[in-house]
Amino acid sequence: MNCVMYVETKTRSIIKAISWRILATLTTMTLVYLFFHRLDLAAAVGVLEAFIKMVVYFLHERVWNRIKYGRKEIPSFVVWFTGLPLSGKTTIANLVYEKLKKDGIKVQRLDSKDVRSLFPEVGYTREERNRHIKRVGHLVSILERQGVSSVASFISPYKESREFVRKLVRNFVEVYVKASVEACMKRDKSGLYERAIKGEIKNFTGISDVYEEPVKPDIVLDTEKISPEIAAGIVYDYLKNRFIKNGRL
Amino acid sequence: MNCVMYVETKTRSIIKAISWRILATLTTMTLVYLFFHRLDLAAAVGVLEAFIKMVVYFLHERVWNRIKYGRKEIPSFVVWFTGLPLSGKTTIANLVYEKLKKDGIKVQRLDSKDVRSLFPEVGYTREERNRHIKRVGHLVSILERQGVSSVASFISPYKESREFVRKLVRNFVEVYVKASVEACMKRDKSGLYERAIKGEIKNFTGISDVYEEPVKPDIVLDTEKISPEIAAGIVYDYLKNRFIKNGRL
User: With contact defined as beta carbons under 8 Å apart, do A80 and A154 qualify?
Assistant: First the structure.
């Protein structure tokens, strides 16, 4: 569960008042003692102050909870991983997603497989693929406007639909997960590429369907040279710098 | 814009420290004066206290901004308006949406028309309609899990897909917007019903396609008897009671 719409409860304000009071009353008592050298009066001022100020502090907190000033919005964004089957998109995207979640960022993970199992009727022709990606684009755009970021990993082989998503979204980060067809085939333990070569899988990107390389991706990750952990670190640092910056949540 | 992912900036903490200090130092000075009847010492304690405690207060705030305790989540929900064409779904749903937004609730409006213009390839057969509604169901379910509520208005004539959405979603509120076919026809200035009767529009709910009434809707609004404003008020009060309660945002 990562709903992040909060109200601050009265109990929180009360506990804050008490924790503050302990700090503050000790300070006051020390000051009074240093000025008057009388422990009895220092104690009396301290006790009275403690009671009165706890109430005042509580009210101060309640008023501030209605004031928006100084509450900084964290921009939401869409990180879009594109690349050949088995280029490493899902693995890297998962790692990035986990890092963002750990930071308390509101983020939705969208992977080709999951989304296709939600809408199983989608095919693999150019038209169907484009339509599918555009639909996902609308989804991430709605999420972005509601303050939810997305980590999306889709082969998304065609420029047309990737550019469509880029235009729809405010903060779009295109990550090209680069690996040669040969390298991807070597990693392929389930024999997808083999079946595609035999013609058992139609419209298979890299074999029987084209992959249109991104022209100006925001990040390129060459997974023949770097590990998924290092690749995820690169993306994470990029997001941190561009969107999150000095903001701890 | 209604992104609601916040961090509290340092400036906010500083301003809070100052506004608190004015209140608090005045209290301390009054107390010291009442005890010692010496204005000069009261002032001296006050000035010294003001400086030291502002720093302590600031640090206290920064620590509390990292503490989750007492930050109450507001549950997200899905309000789903179903009913014949021109029964009044969109009008009422718009009013409910505006009320929720005014309260600061994170909420997404989804209307049949808008969603269909996003995915224009969807037809009106039973299969296509069910698939379409299920897709919308997945969307509202993702939003709900991310803390975003939805106000959805769709004819959604079939039990099957409405029940599908109900099961997918945690907090589902089915609102049946009830009006007889005759009443809907009277309201129909654009002649949709007429064209459906002539056979110019196929699969038109209420004329050439069935509308399966909800069995156990959470709310029924008879729009032949009550105005859209009153209807919206009923739904809003229901949501307020069930999900938002005493929570001001």
Answer: yes
Q: Are B49 and A27 in contact (CB under 8 A)?
A: yes
The verdict on whether A156 is a catalytic residue reads yes
What is the spatial distance between Cα B134 and Cα B156, in angstroms, rounded to a whole number?
A: 10
**Joined tokens for residue B232:** 């919206």
Q: List, in sequence order, every beta strand (DSSP E) within A22-122.
A: 71-73, 78-82, 107-111
Q: What is the DSSP letter of B201?
A: S
Give the whole-angstrom CA distance, residue A154 versus residue A113. 8
CA angle A79, A69, A23 (to 5 degrees): 105
- The domains of chain A are located at 10-64, 78-244
* Side-chain-facing half-sphere of A64: CA atoms under 13 Å: 21
CB contacts of A161 in chain B (<8 Å) are none
CA atoms within 13 A on the CB side of B246: 4
Catalytic residue among A13, A76, A156, A161: A156
In this structure, of A195-204, B14-23, B103-112, B197-206, the range with the lowest mean pLDDT score is B14-23
Work out whether strand B107-111 and strand B149-153 pair parallel, antiparallel, or are unpaired: parallel
Q: Do B148 and A145 touch (CB under 8 A)?
A: no
Contact present, B67 and B139 (Cβ < 8 Å): no
Name the strand (E) or helix (H) holding A176.
strand A172-178
Q: At A111, which helix (H) or strand (E)? A: strand A107-111
A24/B35 Cβ within 8 A: no
Give the residue from A9, A49, A77 showing the smallest Cα distance to A238: A77
**Statement: the pTM of the whole predicted model exceeds 0.80:** no
Say what the alpha-carbon torsion angle B246, B238, B147, A114 is, to the nearest 10 degrees: 160
As a CATH number, domain B78-244 is 3.40.50.300
Angle at B124 between CA B123 and CA B125, to 5 degrees: 105
Least CA distance to B120: which residue of chain A? A131
Judged by CB atoms closer than 8 Å, whether chains meet at A72 and B108 is answered as no
- Measured between alpha carbons, how far is residue A13 from residues A60, A63, A110, B45, B248 in Å? 9, 11, 38, 27, 15
In tens, the pLDDT along A125-152 reads 888 888 889 989 999 999 999 989 999 9
* CA distances, A60 to each of A54, A72, B16, B21 (Å): 10, 20, 9, 11
A19, B56 contact by CB (below 8 A): no
Partnered with residue B161 across adjacent β-strands are: none
**ipTM of this model?**
0.74
